[in-house]
Each structure stands twice: as structure tokens, then as C-alpha cells.
Amino acid sequence: MPLDSIDQRLRQIQLRTRYPVEHLLAGEYRSVFKGRGMDFDEICPYHPGDEVRSIDWNVTARTGRPYVKRYVEERELAVWLVVDVSASCRIPAPGRTKWDAMNDLAALLTLSATHNHDRVGMILCSDRVEQILQPRKGRQHALRLLADLLAIQPGNQCSDPAPALDALLHMAERRVLVLMLSDFLFDLDREQLGPVAFRHDLVGIAVNDPSEIEPPPCGLAAVRDSETGEALVADFGHAGRDVCRRTFDARRRRLREEFAAVRADLLELDTSSDCAEELARFFRHRLRRTADETGG
Questions:
Q1: Distance separating alpha carbons of residues 146 and 83, to the nearest angstrom
Q2: Running DSSP on this structure, what letter comes out for residue 158?
Q3: pLDDT tens per residue across span 99-141
Q4: How far apart are the C-alpha atoms of 10 and 134, rounded to whole Å?
Q5: Rounded to whole angstroms, how far apart are CA atoms 153 and 178?
Q6: Least buried of 67, 114, 204, 289, by fewest C-beta within 10 Å?
Q7: CB-based contacts of 19, cutoff 8 Å, min separation 6
Q8: What angle do CA 285, 189, 253 make, to 5 degrees?
Q9: Structural domains of the chain, with CATH
């Protein structure tokens, strides 16, 4: 994308996201995503909903009752965006594309974090790590992240988040918020997600085109795999659409199960969704669930 086009697109994104970042998402974001402090504060009795990994086993063994370590919350949070830039996420289409929606989501999340004085970093990945931008604070850094996202020309076309997740584990020593943006049209299991979800706060955001969820009726059609280049003739008649629909539903159901197995959240939306409204709804739901689990 030419530099002038990137600047213009970046200005449009800033204008479109300014109100939700400053009003709709600001309080929701901070209420839900809090840093996990590393400075020890006190020992307290365990209550249902407390983090199991915070249990002090020595005190628990001495007293016969479970106790947890409390920590002073960090004032700032490190946020990592892991963005899938493979060919399936960048398919041209009439109207709003998956790539448009993912750029809007990245902007909303990046600028919301910056508005809360958090550090934001980004990993752009295909089936390899394409680019790493280390977490920093400040609006200029946030705009640099978004500009690099708009300008990315991936070297590979296929999808595999494993190298990016592995790189993240090596770079993020303290607990961070990890936001994965992808169409998730690849196999992903708890073996890959587990190490990241155990050490960090992991959230997946799946973006799909409505035609992937509900294939259009068009009979026989020549199609090409955007990542492998393989061409074939597909049946989008009644029976063929049923097969596509069932295949997508099964893939998405398995994805939900894999995220749930590692106690990570998954937000699903399509290109027609209002990204700001969906994020705000997700934040509120997560906040209510956390309050129910912890009793406060």
C-alpha cells in the first residue's frame, strides 16, 4: 500500500475510533483488564474464584486451610496483539473485508490501551513471525503499530500461530494480556494455547466473512485456496452449502472447546459487526462473569 494511502487510512481509523476509545471502551477496558502485580502484599484465606496459582502451599500445609498470596496490582498493563496477516485474512471482497474489520479491532484495542497508559506491542504472523514490535507507551507508538499493520506485506501466505505464540512466551516474562486476531481457519488446539493461557491472560477474537458462515447459493463455482493457490470446482448448491455450513460450524465449535479448555475467552464476530459495540459487550460480559466467580 502506498505511503499516502496508509496515512489516509490511518487518519480514517483514528477518526472512526476516537469516540468509542474515549467514551464507550475506556472504563470497560480498565475494569476488565488489570495488571497482575508482582509485589507481595499479604497472605489471605482462599475464597472460591481466587487464582489457584496464587495458593501458598507452605501456609496451607501448616494451617490445614487454603491460603493465597495477594499482590499489589501493577499500575500499567502490557498488551500484546498477535495479528494473523495470512492470505485468508486479506482476501479482497466487496464492501467491508475481514482485513478492514481486523484493522478496526486492532485500532480500538491499541488506542484503548494507550488511553489507559498501558504498553502495547504487536506480533504480525502468517505461518512464521513476520514482524515484532515491542511494547511501549504513548500515542505515537500506537500509531506506528497501526501504520506497520496497514503496510505489512507478509512473506508467507499460510496460517500457523505456533511460531508467534512461542516467540511471545520467550519475550513476555511477566503476565501480559494477549489478544489474538484471526479468522482461525486453521487447526488450533489446547496444546498450542495452553502454555500462553497458563502464563498470561489470553483472548481470541475470530473475524469471519458472512459468506464463510453462510455460503451463498451459486451452484458450481471455480474457487482458489488463498493460501495454497490450489484451484478446484466447488458445489454451492443446496447439498454443497449444507456441507460447508456443517464444516464451518464444527470447526468453530472445536475452537470454542479448545479456548474453554485452557480457560481463555473467545469473541466471535463477522465483517458486518460493529466492532466497538461488540468489544464493549464482551468487556461487560467478562466483568460480570468475573464478579460472579469471585463474589465481588
A1: 11
A2: S
A3: 999 999 999 999 999 988 899 999 999 999 999 999 999 999 9
A4: 20
A5: 23
A6: 289
A7: none
A8: 55
A9: 3-33+75-291 (3.40.50.410), 39-72 (no CATH)
